[in-house]
């Protein structure tokens, strides 16, 4: 039983020849993302903005959004957003943070329950007060920055500094583009998106490390080869794996996105986007950055694997 | 890389079978599990609040209230100490933001004496690992102009907060237990917070009402000097009396004597019951000896007067004392429903909270949404796995079968590990498992691609497989450790559902690397051993 080869072996795609195009496209996308972030900004969920979120399901037939809007708009809770959530009978109600401290947040739930009564099923209630939302913003930012730093250190330790700059450039690229797409589509940005971003950091890195590993190996194998040819060779050698793993991960994520329910749809969307962007960036960002920085070819990394190869040949 | 010692084969098999063994209880529903023999593990994965429904409530204790209470006690103690020594003073004032009590001694000659008296109010703290070397509860300082300040020390405050939080946790636990749900968790978080998680709770509104009430019970005499003690909306409150609103929110405020005659601290028991004459739900209570004596004395000398029963500064009712109550027991009526009477009894039995608790974060999931999430998660997981299995089979043929068996083992190991660790499975956690499915094949993909490459260089099948494994290991470790770092940071900083995701992702990374290098390799090596292949179908 022979497997199919989706990617023919021995491809010779001159990736590095397109590197300027890649860098230009990415730069434009990054600038666009930053522009969107500073103008329209993210659509922060209650985790970061504070406030109340109530998910309801009507007991008889589809929900009348207009009616809900007019009933909940007039009870003095300020900005109330009403939105269908996955199913015509399911509705998400978002209420802005109430002024006057933590106690007043609880009042909005009471008022909504008094207004809607027992005609609906309250599926989910989330209230995040001002103290906690501030902490979540802080912790989320720390988490992403700490993850990027930890990875920078790990790659530096395992490879050389040029590699870690290349890897981190790709990561920052992925994180910024993810924030960009969330700004563009105005999808809700909440705690689970931070989790998705951290997973993207891990995944994108996974890809980059596999390519870097091959570059390092080829650096030892082909001491005289041009760096651009060597990077191309390494990218082509790992291409099949890159595509295969991306496809399996996307199959799993796609299934989650379609069948996993509305609650985690934003989370899976971020992850799907991250896998696509992460795969792209390990080819078109990490490696070109590495090439621009140049590699110290005399040292060629730690000596231990060097000994391994001849030892294997002899047996 | 292809030779396995027998003990290694045994160990790998044992681990895989063990993992499956611990995963087993999850396939059985919990009712049938009761009849399963004891030697089979019974631990199922804990479902998170987002899957089984329930309430997550983060409370913050009002630190200022605690400080204020304490400063009032200090002020009282200082007043008593100075009076006892007949030291003249002015302006005994407290400041909550500064956490201090200040007093000006009139006669400079008495300053030394006052200082040494007031210093005795500062008590030594017990030393502990957490607070460092033991200090005192108060910093007592004097200035030349005759002012003495008593400031609560940071350590003293911390210890006071700690003990208040611990006492609150006990109180909250007694209240939550009254709901009879399985395994609520009540734990301290940070300096002044309590996290209450109650799985499967239906009536969250009632839970919040029960937990959030301070539960301070006081008996105060109604000031009958003011017309009836009630209806004095604009009337002046005489000194020594205070205005307290009525509990039902409709009746007018009550004017009562400020001094509490008896308080809830003297209660030993409270039970819901019915009034023997009116058959109305009531709460009957019993005082300890001291409380009983005091209650008896007050009722004896105030027959015919209304006696206000006050809960958290609201008058529940103010019945007229018909006869002295000497037995130390009594009943509270206040047109309760049966449930209200029951809740009040629980509240009184559980004791009062040292300070007000305020909800600063709430996440409540109804049972219906939880069930929907589980169903959606299951469907997504099954379809996702099916797609991945099919894709791998098509990509790698026979080796794809090996990889797919490994994937199945992987799932069993993840489920087994989650059950054994009693980790909590959340909806993002299910996403983590599905994502791991996609990523778990990565290790095998790396190895198989490497084997293909080695075959192309013209090596023999066995040498290629061998080289494929030995060369891929470094890459696989590097690639997975970086993902693991991200997952660990997520676990460290995340909470609730997110943490559940970090847990499944980390476990998934470990098991996928483990299975790729032990189990799949074992399958491949056995295949090589028995087939002696001349060609590798990969």
Structural description of this entry:
The complex is a heterodimer of chains A (315) and B (538). Helices cover 65% and strands 11% of the residues of chain A. With 315 residues, chain A is an alpha+beta fold. Chain A has two domains: 15-42 and 133-314, Up-down Bundle (Multidrug efflux transporter AcrB transmembrane fold); 51-128, Alpha-Beta Plaits (2-Layer Sandwich). In chain A, the strands form two sheets. Chain A has a four-stranded antiparallel sheet. Chain A has a two-stranded parallel sheet with strand order 1-6. The longest helix of chain A has 33 residues, at 227-259. With 538 residues, chain B is of the alpha+beta class. Chain B has three domains: 6-53 and 368-531, Multidrug efflux transporter AcrB transmembrane domain (Multidrug efflux transporter AcrB transmembrane fold, Up-down Bundle); 63-159; 213-363, Gyrase A, domain 2 (2-Layer Sandwich). Helices cover 50% and strands 19% of the residues of chain B. In chain B, the strands form six sheets. In chain B, strands 7-8-2-18 form a four-stranded antiparallel sheet. In chain B, strands 3-4-6-5 form a four-stranded antiparallel sheet. In chain B, α1 packs antiparallel against α10 (367-420) and α12 (461-493) runs antiparallel to α13. Chain B is elongated. Chains A and B meet through α4, β5, α5, α7 and α8 of A and α7, β18, α10, α11 and α12 of B.
């Amino acid at each position: 039983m022979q497997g199919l080869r989706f990617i023919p072996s021995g491809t010779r795609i001159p990736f590095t020849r397109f590197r300027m195009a890649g860098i230009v496209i990415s730069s434009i996308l990054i600038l666009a993302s930053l522009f969107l972030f500073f103008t329209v900004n993210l659509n922060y969920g209650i985790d970061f903005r504070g406030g109340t979120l109530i998910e309801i399901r009507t007991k008889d037939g589809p929900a009348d959004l207009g009616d809900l809007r007019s009933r909940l708009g007039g009870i003095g809770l300020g900005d109330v957003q009403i939105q269908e959530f996955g199913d015509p009978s399911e509705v998400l109600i978002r209420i802005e943070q109430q002024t006057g401290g933590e106690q007043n947040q609880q009042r909005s739930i009471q008022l909504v329950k008094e207004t809607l009564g027992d005609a609906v099923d309250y599926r989910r209630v989330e209230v995040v007060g001002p103290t906690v939302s501030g902490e979540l913003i802080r912790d989320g930012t720390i988490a992403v920055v700490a993850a990027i730093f930890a990875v920078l250190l790990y790659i530096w330790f395992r490879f050389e500094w040029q590699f870690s700059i290349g890897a981190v450039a790709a990561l920052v690229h992925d994180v910024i583009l993810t924030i960009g797409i969330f700004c563009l589509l105005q999808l809700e940005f909440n705690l689970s998106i931070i989790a998705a971003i951290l997973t993207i950091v891990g995944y994108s890195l996974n890809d980059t490390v596999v390519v870097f590993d091959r570059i390092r190996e080829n650096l030892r194998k082909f001491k005289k080869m041009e760096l651009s040819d060597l990077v191309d060779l390494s990218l082509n050698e790992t291409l099949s794996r890159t595509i295969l793993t991306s496809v399996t991960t996307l199959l799993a994520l796609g299934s989650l996105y379609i069948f996993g329910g509305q609650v985690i749809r934003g989370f899976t969307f971020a992850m799907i986007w991250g896998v696509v962007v992460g795969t792209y960036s390990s080819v078109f960002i990490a490696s070109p950055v590495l090439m621009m920085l140049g590699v110290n070819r005399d040292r060629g990394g730690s000596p231990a694997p060097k000994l391994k190869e001849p030892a294997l040949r002899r047996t | 890389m292809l030779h396995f010692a027998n003990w290694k084969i045994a160990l790998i098999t044992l681990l895989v079978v063990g993992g499956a063994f611990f995963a087993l209880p999850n396939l059985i529903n919990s009712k049938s599990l009761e009849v399963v023999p004891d030697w089979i593990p019974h631990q199922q994965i804990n479902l998170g609040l987002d899957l089984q429904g329930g309430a997550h409530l983060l409370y913050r204790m009002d630190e200022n209230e605690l400080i204020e209470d304490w400063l009032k006690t200090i002020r009282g103690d200082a007043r008593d100490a100075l009076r006892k020594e007949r030291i003249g003073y002015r302006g005994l004032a407290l400041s909550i933001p500064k956490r201090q009590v200040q007093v000006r001694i009139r006669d400079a000659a008495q300053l030394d004496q006052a200082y040494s008296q007031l210093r005795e109010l500062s008590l030594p703290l017990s030393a502990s690992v957490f607070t460092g070397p033991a200090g005192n509860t108060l910093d007592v300082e004097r200035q030349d102009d005759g002012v003495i300040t008593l400031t609560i020390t940071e350590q003293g405050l911390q210890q006071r907060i700690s003990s208040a939080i611990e006492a609150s946790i006990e109180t909250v636990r007694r209240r939550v237990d009254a709901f009879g749900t399985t395994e609520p968790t009540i734990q301290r978080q940070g300096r002044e917070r309590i996290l209450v998680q109650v799985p499967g709770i239906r009536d969250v509104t009632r839970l919040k009402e029960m937990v959030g009430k301070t539960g301070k019970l006081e008996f105060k005499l109604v000031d009958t000097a003011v017309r009836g003690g009630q209806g004095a909306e604009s009337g002046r409150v005489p000194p020594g009396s205070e205005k307290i609103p009525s509990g039902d929110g409709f009746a007018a405020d009550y004017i009562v004597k400020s001094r509490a005659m008896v308080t809830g601290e003297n209660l030993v028991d409270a039970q819901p019951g019915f009034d023997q004459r009116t058959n109305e739900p009531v709460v009957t209570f019993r005082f300890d000896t001291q409380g009983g004596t005091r209650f008896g004395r007050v009722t004896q000398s105030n027959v015919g007067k209304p006696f206000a029963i006050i809960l958290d500064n609201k008058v529940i009712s103010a019945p007229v004392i018909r006869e002295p109550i000497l037995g130390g027991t009594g009943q509270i009526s206040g047109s309760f429903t049966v449930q209200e009477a029951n809740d009040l009894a629980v509240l009184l039995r559980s004791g009062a909270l040292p300070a007000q608790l305020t909800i600063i974060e709430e996440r409540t999931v109804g049972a219906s949404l939880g069930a929907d999430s589980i169903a959606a998660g299951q469907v997504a997981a099954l379809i996702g796995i099916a797609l991945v299995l099919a894709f791998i089979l098509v990509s790698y043929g026979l080796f794809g079968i090996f990889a797919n068996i490994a994937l199945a083992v992987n799932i069993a190991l993840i489920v087994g590990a989650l059950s054994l660790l009693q980790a909590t499975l959340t909806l993002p956690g299910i996403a983590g498992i599905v994502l791991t499915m996609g990523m778990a094949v990565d290790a095998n993909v790396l190895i198989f691609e490497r084997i293909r490459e080695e075959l192309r260089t013209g090596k023999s099948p066995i040498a290629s497989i061998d080289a494929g494994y030995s060369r891929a290991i470094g890459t696989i470790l590097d690639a997975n450790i970086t993902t693991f770092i991200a997952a660990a940071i997520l676990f460290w900083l995340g909470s609730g559902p997110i943490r559940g995701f970090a847990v499944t992702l980390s476990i998934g990374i470990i098991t996928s690397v483990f299975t790729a290098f032990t189990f799949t390799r074992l399958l491949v090596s056995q295949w090589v051993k028995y087939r002696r292949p001349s060609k590798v179908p990969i």
